[in-house]
Amino acid sequence: MTASQETPQWIELTGAHNVRDLGGLPAAGGTVRPGVLLRGDNLDSLTTEDIALLRDKVGLRGVVDLRAPFENPRAAEWFPQLGITWMHEPLMDFTGLSDPKALRDRIGGDYARFYAIMLENAGPGLVRILDFLVSGERTPALVHCAAGKDRTGITTAVLLAAAGVERDAIVADYLATEQRIQRVREALSRRPEYSHLTAGRSAPRGIGTAVLVDPKAIASVLDTIDAAPGGPAGYLAANGATAEQISRWQEMIIESR
User: Which of 14, 31, 148, 187 is the 20 to 30 A CA-CA neighbour of 97?
Assistant: First the structure.
């Protein structure tokens, strides 16, 4: 990657801290087109100025919310005003957020195992997200969860890999969250949905609070989908994606050199 491509394309907002455009990442035959796929943390605390920026500078048209029901996911009141279509896909309900101790006991602090568990049943949901993105005028689209790291990281990794984005670039993008994670964690700690995550020693460090940014974890996801017959695109096809959907996605997101 060039120096410019290594620099995350942050979208500076007051009420969200981990939002970035994935444009510029290198891919087979080109680069990721700006203004197609964005990733981030939750949007519940955006200011009026933040919303205006997303309207005027980003032109946001779609939002994919990966949060579990207990996190109170909902379409913001301002979505219809901006013509934004909202999709709720609780892709990986087993995130450890609702019961951190149970997750700690199951994975023993192994984040690669954590991601493997989340990916086990994620295929159909990822295909629904793919269909959302390629059907209608829904890009630029922002994929987000609570912190914009684990569930969002897995989702964007699969989407990028299926489009032919270079593996090192996908890992580097995942690791970019480390630059903002402390801000994200502090913001989450002020929300009642996540108060149990920092309420004493019962909450294992790194689970749910999104402290750990582990390259081995996202590498395990890429290893799994690379090993599928046909690679990442084959992984999506095996979970119900059509050749037309995959081709359309590749055309939408990759800008030829």
Answer: 14
Instruction: Determine the topology of domain 3-256 in CATH.
Output: Protein-Tyrosine Phosphatase; Chain A (3.90.190)
Give residue-wise pLDDT tens across range 131-145: 999 999 999 999 999
Residue of 187, 194, 192, 184 whose CA lies nearest to 98: 194
Long-range contacts of 45-52 (CB under 8 A, 24+ apart): 45/15, 45/16, 45/187, 46/13, 46/14, 46/15, 46/16, 46/76, 47/13, 47/14, 47/15, 49/14, 50/13, 50/14, 50/15, 50/16, 51/78, 51/82
* Catalytically annotated residue among 38, 145, 187, 253: 145
pTM of the predicted model, to two decimals?
0.89
pLDDT in tens, 3-21: 344 689 999 999 999 999 9
Contact assessment for residue 28 and residue 249, using Cβ atoms and an 8 Å cutoff: no
Query: For this structure, is 36 an active site residue?
Result: no
